[in-house]
Design a protein that fits this description.
Blueprint: H1 9-27, H2 36-46, H3 53-64, H4 72-90, E1 100-101, E2 104-105, H5 107-111, H6 113-132, H7 141-155, H8 160-169, H9 177-202, H10 207-234, H11 237-240, H12 246-249, H13 255-259, H14 261-280, H15 287-298
Antiparallel strand pairs: 1-2
């Protein structure tokens, strides 16, 4: 796709985001029966907006490798469910104890702490139920199985949940750059790796290509999280949709506290350049994906 002078990148991003919203709506659980309240909590959280970065990255990587049909759509909905589950639990009183997310009350503030826990658990499980429906949408079931395994690996103890565990255990403690990188590479980067690797796999990319995508996604994830650190200090609450200085309030060590805002910003640029170099080295190209990575460097929310 040639976007020329950005064939208005923001408009194209909004169009892709709307497409993701439509996909997500198709896969949300029905609100009925004795579990209606839990379904409402799940849907409240899923429909709270957000950047939808992970499903967009999944879809764009899938397109870059020539993906056809609708097999990526269940995975696009599923990765956002997994991400949203992590946000619901992050906001709970036992963890970050935040009252607002994406500009409105957090799930546990609306539905109660118990339903916040259960709604998050349900979204994580429901994501895998949704992923498995992709078997009905492809003539290549092996690609679905491999993509689902990537999702499981990157979201479990050796991925997102492992990173969250280390984050909780080290909260309020002085930690090294090595520990912080472990937390970021797993708590944040792992889901971005899962998104892009699953997209490439579903489209039939080779093992070496998927490894390159994994490395690029890791750099993108780190850059994204460090940018979050910066915005927590320099951002506006109205723009980022949550309280600023929450890291300081929760006594969290971040790249900003370790090296300062300017050095952290330099790290974001370095990681973004690294990711772009890896993607540029692939035979397959996606100009929008490249512009999206660039946009992460200077985003304000």
């Amino acid at each position: 796709m040639r976007m020329g002078r950005t064939v208005n990148f923001e408009e194209e991003l909004e169009r892709k985001k709307q497409n993701v919203e439509e996909v997500i709506l198709r896969y949300l659980p029905r609100e009925h029966g004795f579990a209606e309240t839990m379904a409402r909590a799940m849907n409240y959280s899923m429909q709270a907006g957000g950047k939808r970065l992970r499903p967009i990255l999944l879809g764009e990587t899938w397109k870059m490798f020539g993906g056809k049909g609708a097999v990526a759509e269940p995975f696009m909905a599923a990765i956002e469910m997994i991400h949203t589950h992590s946000l619901i639990h992050d906001d709970l009183p036992a963890l970050d104890n935040d009252d607002y997310r994406r500009g409105r009350l957090t799930t546990h503030k609306v539905f109660g702490e118990a339903m916040g826990i259960l709604g998050g658990d349900a979204l994580l499980n429901y994501a895998y139920e949704i992923m498995l429906t992709a078997f009905d949408l492809t003539d290549n079931p092996r690609s679905v199985a491999v993509a689902a395994r990537i999702m499981a690996d990157k979201t479990g103890i050796h991925g997102m949940l492992g990173g969250q565990s280390a984050d909780v255990e080290n909260e309020g403690k002085p930690i090294t750059r090595e520990v912080l990188d472990y937390i970021y590479e797993n708590k944040t980067s792992a889901l971005i790796e899962a998104s892009m690797m699953a997209g490439a796999t579903l489209a039939g990319a080779g093992k070496q290509e998927v490894r390159v995508v994994e490395k690029a996604a890791r750099s993108i994830g780190l850059a994204f999280q460090i940018r979050d650190d910066i915005l927590d200090v320099t951002g506006e609450e109205k723009e980022i949709g949550k309280p600023v200085h929450s890291d300081e309030r929760n006594r969290k060590v971040t790249y900003v506290t370790l090296m300062g805002v300017e050095a952290a910003a330099d790290q974001v640029r370095r990681l973004s350049d690294e990711a772009l170099g890896l993607l540029d080295g692939l035979d397959q190209k996606n100009e929008f994906l490249r512009l999206l990575v660039n946009q992460l460097v200077s985003r304000r929310n």
